[in-house]
Amino acid sequence: MTVDRLPSAGRRVEDILNQHALDMAADLIVMGAYGHLRIRERVFGGVTKAMIDVPTVPVLMVR
């Protein structure tokens, strides 16, 4: 297993994760998810929702 620290340079987290998956030729992204209040999620958005909405590679989401 490898752990990589990635600079954001002002980009969105989901963009960084998807690009890194492509750079590493990953077959799958595995990530945990936890819920927020729906109103907070609507106002601020969230990485979890973004990763599900527009995945670059398949995503296994565990809650």
Automatic annotation (TrEMBL):
Transmembrane segments: none annotated. InterPro entries: Universal_stress_UspA, UspA. Residues 12-63 form the UspA domain. Belongs to the universal stress protein A family. This is Universal stress protein UspA and related nucleotide-binding protein. It comes from Sinorhizobium americanum. The lineage of its organism: Bacteria, Pseudomonadati, Pseudomonadota, Alphaproteobacteria, Hyphomicrobiales.
